[in-house]
Recover the amino acids of this structure.
C-alpha cells in the first residue's frame, strides 16, 4: 500500500522547496523607485576523480543571483554582468533557467540529496533482513511480511527516481542554455577589467555546472538500477532474496556516499543566492558611525567629509565633526544606503548625473539607483572598493589628486579607490 512509504517527503519536495529557501524569494530593492527615476545537449560525465567543492556551488549561485535576482533594469541600473548578458539573444532564456534554479532546482536537489543521505532506506533494508530471518522488529509483535516491505520500498524508490529524473532534466536545460549564452557572450568580446570582479569567472561557472550535472547523472543511474533491482527482488524466493539483499545494501551505500557529496552548506549558499554575502566585504555594524579613508590620503589623515553640497577628503577634525561620520544601512541583496550624521536620516549619499565625473552629493532619500552602494573586495587586505547601482562596477568611488573631491572614476588600480572604515561610535 502506498501509504506505507517512509519517505513521504519525496512526493512533496516541490512544495517544501519554497520553504527550504524561503529567504531566497526576495524582491529586488530600489528598482521600482529607480524605474520612476530547452533543448538538451549531448552529455559526457566529468572524470570520476573530480570532487565537488563548496566553491563550485558558490560560482553557480553567484552567477544565478547576478543574472536573475540582483537589482537590474535596462538604462536605469548598470550592474555589469546582467547588463552584458542582457545584450544577448539568449538572455531571457538564461533568466528563466537561473530563476528556476534558485526557486526549484537547487533547493529540491539539496532536499533530495539530504533525504538520500538520511538513512531511511537503510532502515527499510534492515527491516527486510529482519523479516527474512523470521524475526520481529518490535518485541511482542509478529514478524513483518517481506513482500509488504519490498512493495513499500519499491514505491519509495519509484518516487525518488521520478524526482531525480526531474532534477536531471532541469540541470540539462540549465546547461544547454548556459552553453548557448556563453558562446554568444564570447563572440561579443566584452572588455575585461583585472581590478574589479563583475561576477564569478564564467569558465568556473561552466565547469561547476558540468560537475554537478555529472555527479547527479551518476547518482540517478544508480538510483534507477537500485529501483530495478528491488523490482526484481519482489518476484524471488526467500533464498535468492536474501542473497540479492546484500547487493542492494551495498548499492545503497554507494548512493548515500554520492548524495552526501552533493550537499552544500545551506546557510552559506542562501547568502550567495540573495547577495547577502556582499556585506562581508565591508562589515559595517548597523547603528554605528564611521570615518572613511582611502589609501591615497591615508598618510595625511584625511577622511571623507561633507563639504556644502558635495563630498571631499579633508583632515580629521580633532574635536570630532559630524560631517565626517557616516552610517551604512542595509537595504538588502548586498546594497547599502549611506547617510551623514550631520544631516540625519532624511538624505542619502548619491551621485550627480553629469554624464562625466559623477561627483558625490547628499540628496533626499528617494531610493533611486545612485543611492544604492556595494562594497567589492580588492587585492589589499582590509581595503574595499565602493560602487553604486546607477554607475555599476566599472566606476568606483575615487578622489581627485588636487581638490580631493569625491567622484566616480573608471575602476582601476588607483589608491584613491581603496577604502577602509574606522568606527567612531554608535547612534547612541
Amino acid at each position: 500500500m502506498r501509504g506505507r512509504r517512509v519517505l513521504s517527503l519525496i512526493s512533496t519536495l516541490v512544495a517544501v522547496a519554497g520553504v527550504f529557501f524561503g529567504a531566497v524569494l526576495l524582491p529586488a530593492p530600489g528598482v521600482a523607485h529607480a524605474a520612476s527615476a530547452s533543448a538538451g545537449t549531448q552529455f559526457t560525465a566529468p572524470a570520476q576523480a573530480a570532487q565537488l567543492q563548496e566553491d563550485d556551488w558558490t560560482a553557480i549561485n553567484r552567477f544565478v543571483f547576478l543574472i536573475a535576482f540582483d537589482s537590474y533594469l535596462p538604462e536605469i541600473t548598470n550592474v555589469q554582468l546582467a547588463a552584458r548578458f542582457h545584450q544577448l539573444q539568449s538572455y531571457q532564456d538564461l533568466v528563466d533557467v537561473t530563476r528556476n534554479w534558485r526557486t526549484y532546482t537547487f533547493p529540491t536537489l539539496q532536499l533530495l540529496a539530504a533525504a538520500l543521505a538520511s538513512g531511511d532506506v537503510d532502515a527499510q533494508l534492515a527491516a527486510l533482513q529482519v523479516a527474512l530471518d523470521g524475526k520481529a522488529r518490535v518485541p511482542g509483535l509478529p514478524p513483518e511480511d517481506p513482500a509488504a516491505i519490498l512493495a513499500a520500498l519499491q514505491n519509495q524508490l519509484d518516487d525518488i527516481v521520478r524526482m531525480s529524473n526531474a532534477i536531471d532534466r532541469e540541470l540539462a536545460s540549465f546547461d544547454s542554455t548556459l552553453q548557448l549564452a556563453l558562446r554568444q557572450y564570447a563572440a561579443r568580446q566584452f572588455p575585461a577589467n583585472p581590478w574589479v570582479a563583475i561576477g564569478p569567472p564564467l569558465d568556473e561557472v561552466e565547469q561547476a555546472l558540468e560537475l554537478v550535472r555529472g555527479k547527479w547523472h551518476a547518482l540517478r543511474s544508480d538510483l534507477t538500477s537500485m529501483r530495478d533491482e528491488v523490482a526484481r527482488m519482489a518476484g524471488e524466493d526467500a533464498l535468492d532474496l536474501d542473497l540479492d539483499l546484500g547487493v542492494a545494501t551495498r548499492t545503497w551505500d554507494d548512493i548515500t556516499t554520492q548524495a552526501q557529496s552533493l550537499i552544500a552548506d545551506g546557510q552559506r549558499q542562501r547568502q550567495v543566492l540573495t547577495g547577502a554575502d556582499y556585506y562581508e566585504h565591508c562589515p559595517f555594524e548597523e547603528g554605528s558611525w564611521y570615518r572613511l579613508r582611502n589609501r591615497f590620503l591615508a598618510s595625511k589623515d584625511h577622511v571623507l567629509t561633507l563639504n556644502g553640497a558635495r563630498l571631499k577628503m579633508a583632515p580629521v577634525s580633532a574635536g570630532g565633526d559630524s560631517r565626517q561620520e557616516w552610517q551604512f544601512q542595509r537595504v538588502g541583496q548586498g546594497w547599502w544606503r549611506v547617510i551623514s550624521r550631520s544631516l540625519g536620516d532624511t538624505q542619502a549619499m548619491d551621485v550627480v548625473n553629469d554624464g562625466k565625473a559623477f561627483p558625490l552629493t547628499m540628496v533626499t532619500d528617494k531610493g533611486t539607483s545612485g543611492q544604492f552602494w556595494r562594497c567589492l573586495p580588492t587585492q589589499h587586505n582590509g581595503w574595499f572598493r565602493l560602487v553604486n547601482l546607477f554607475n555599476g562596477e566599472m566606476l568606483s568611488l575615487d578622489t581627485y589628486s588636487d581638490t580631493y573631491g569625491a567622484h566616480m572614476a573608471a575602476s582601476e588600480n588607483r589608491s584613491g579607490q581603496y577604502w577602509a572604515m574606522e568606527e567612531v561610535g554608535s547612534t547612541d
User: Anything to note?
Assistant: Residues 55 and 208 are 9 Å apart (CA to CA). Residues 278-426 form a domain with the Trefoil (Acidic Fibroblast Growth Factor, subunit A) fold (CATH 2.80.10.50).
